[in-house]
Structures are given as C-alpha cells and as structure tokens.
Design a protein that fits this description.
The protein has a single domain, classed as Lambda Exonuclease, Chain A (Alpha-Beta Complex). It has eight helices and six strands. It has helices at 5-13, 15-23, 32-49, 55-65, 74-96, 147-152, 154-167, 194-209, and strands at residues 2-4, 101-113, 116-127, 133-139, 173-178, 183-188. Strands 1, 2, 3, 4, 5 and 6 form a six-stranded mixed beta sheet that branches. The longest helix is centred in the middle third of the chain and has 23 residues, at 74-96.
Length: 235
C-alpha cells in the first residue's frame, strides 16, 4: 500500500479513526483555523514556485489561493484574511534577509519500504552557504514547542527519512517555521532513529493491510468524531 505521513499518524493515534477517515470516507469539516492555515500554505507554495518574489506577488497568491469555507460569516472571514495579509507581509521581510538558497518547495517524494510505498510532501528544502540542507515545515498556529519537541517531531523525522531515501538529501537541520508569530525553531538532525522509524512505518502499513482497526481511546478528547463514535470515552 501507499502510506503518507497523515495516514501513518492517524493510524498510530487510533486505528478506528483511520477506518472512519480512509475506509468509510468521512471528512472533517473545515473551520476558520484550518481554512486559514490551508490558505497560507497554498499561498506560500504558489509564491515560492513562481519567479516573481515581490510582496505584491505574494499578496496576489494569497488572493488567488484564499479559501472561504469554514468561516461563520463574511465579517469573520475578513478578520482572518486581514491577519493573513499582515503575516505574509512580515514573512516577506524575513524571507528577503535569508542567506539560504531555496532548493524546493512542496517537494513530493516516494520511496519503497518492503512491499509498501512511502509518500510525503516537504514544505521546503533550503541549502545554506556551507552546503548543508535545511528541511522546513510551515506551521500556522500560535503555539511554540521546545527544541527537544522539534527534534523528536514525528512529521519532520518522517520527511527527513524520505528526503534521504528518495531525494538523496540528508538534512543538517530540521526547522519549524511558525509564520503566524514570525519565529523559527531550528535543531540539528540526528539520523540515529531512522531504522526504528522505518520499521514502525512498515508495521503500520502491514496492520492497515491486514484490516486491524482497534479503537484507541487515549485520543478521544481531541477527536473530531468523539460525539458519535461507539468507542468514544469523551461523549
């Protein structure tokens, strides 16, 4: 099977939730926060791919990629849109001062893991003047993790493993770029756990193929299906 980070993460959180989403075809409705985050991601992707890196072009990309779903009314949407314009204006100033070189934006990778295929999409890969590679993941929420949390972040590590296996790029640093607050957290990449991660991805894919979908109630309090799930501990 083809397994992405999203599928891997959700299966590891709760196999039953995986079944609801990917086998039963249920979808989580957009809200203001998720719609806002997707709009910023899509605007940055489009802007980095094109040749015009002016601030005006960045704002044009936001207008073209803005998603209107998930807002309570036009007034709420206007507030979030104004916030997005302010965030991207600040981001553009920060981007202009970077010394790194953009290698790729929204870079997709595939690699073979046993009989499975691992797929991912890296927000950004930069190269430093010393030749080292930085793997960047954009975050649009307000919370800031510690450096230890960034170093252990399963999504960044999943992407770092994919960059090495599929792209031949061994990142020197992993970076979470919190565009909403204008802060980056960078840590040196330690590849020592790659073997364990690869085995765990394969084990998750094997279990999905085998149809093993037991409920894990540890994640019920933050599950979007907790009100209707027959196994929910948070109804």
């Amino acid at each position: 099977m083809e397994i992405s980070y999203t599928r891997y993460r959700i299966y590891r959180e709760c196999p039953w939730k995986y079944k609801i989403l990917f086998l039963d075809g249920r979808r989580i409705p957009l809200n203001a926060k998720s719609s806002f985050g997707l709009s910023l991601h899509r605007a940055l992707e489009a802007w980095l791919h094109q040749g015009d890196l002016t601030l005006e072009a960045l704002h044009d990309c936001l207008r073209a990629r803005w998603m209107s779903q998930g807002y309570a009314d036009e007034e709420e949407e206007a507030r979030w849109r104004s916030k997005a314009v302010r965030i991207l204006s600040r981001f553009h100033g920060e981007e202009s001062s970077r010394r790194t070189r953009l290698i790729a934006a929204e870079k997709e990778f595939f690699w073979t893991l046993g009989r499975h295929t691992v797929r991912g999409m890296i927000d950004r890969i930069d190269q430093r003047p010393d030749g080292g590679y930085e793997l960047v993941d954009y975050k649009t929420g307000p919370g800031l993790p510690t450096e230890e949390q960034v170093s252990a972040d399963p999504q960044l590590r999943f992407y770092a493993l994919g960059a090495g296996k599929a792209l031949g790029i061994k990142p020197s640093d992993l970076i979470m770029d919190f565009v909403a607050v204008g802060k980056r957290i960078s840590v040196a990449y330690d590849a020592s756990g790659e073997g364990t991660l690869g085995h765990d991805i394969a084990a998750a894919a094997d279990s999905i193929e085998a149809g093993a979908f037991p409920a894990d109630t540890r994640y019920c309090p933050r599950c979007d299906f907790r009100a209707e799930c027959p196994y929910s501990a948070s109804r």
